[in-house]
Amino acid sequence: MRGALRARRHLHSRALPPRRRPRSRARLAHDPRGTSRSLEARRPWTTPLIAAAHGWVMTLGIELLLAADIAVAAADSRFAQSEVRRGIYPFGGATLRFPRVAGWCNAMRWVLTGDEFDAAEAYRLGLIQQVATDRADALDSAMRLAETITTKSAPLGVQATLRSATVAATQGDDAAIARLHPDIAALFGTADCAEGMASFVERREAQFTGR
């Protein structure tokens, strides 16, 4: 399975005007889980998520990039975590993930001011991992990354890698370390491990089956 996350043409990450906001303040107060359900488990899935961005990438758009495993953006993309300029604050994950990705001071520079920044700065911060030439190249680059993972990497190895990193991020290093030996022992017994070792010795591309 491969794919990339992108917004359709009629969708974007700018804040909705007041008359179109789908949730009232009262509903948010009585149903906070409705806005944070996606944060309860940082990575419930073990399929890589690659995001491609272009144009205006604001507020929730940045938070979607922060939730991805790999992110690509077009060179002309503009970014802004501007909730503080609307009297609120980022409640879709930026206060958790932005400091982890960019470092505390780098994140606060943009989260506390709401200033705009460009793709070069997003790359420096670690918010994106590749700057593409334009919108089409951003999507193509994301799909190429997905294709590489799909065709070159063993599915069970990819799943185990994401699972281990997720445990470390959500439960701490000790919890992840405790799983290293059991998990690698299980992988050593798979057909894909045997194929990977054989392909290395025989100097050929591995043909993984996910078993």
Automatic annotation (TrEMBL):
Catalysed conversion reaction: a (3S)-3-hydroxyacyl-CoA = a (2E)-enoyl-CoA + H2O; a 4-saturated-(3S)-3-hydroxyacyl-CoA = a (3E)-enoyl-CoA + H2O
Bias type Basic and acidic residues, positions: 28-40
Protein name: Putative enoyl-CoA hydratase
Comp. bias (Basic residues): 1-27
Keyword Lyase: yes
Similarity remark: Belongs to the enoyl-CoA hydratase/isomerase family.
Chain intervals for the UniProt region annotation (Disordered): 1-40
Keyword Lyase: yes
Pfam families noted in UniProt: ECH_1 (PF00378)
Source organism per UniProt: Gordonia aichiensis NBRC 108223
GO MF terms, alphabetically ordered: enoyl-CoA hydratase activity
CDD domains recorded: crotonase-like
InterPro entries, alphabetized: ClpP/crotonase-like_dom_sf (IPR029045), Enoyl-CoA_hydra/iso (IPR001753), Enoyl-CoA_hydra_C (IPR014748)
UniProtKB keywords: Lyase
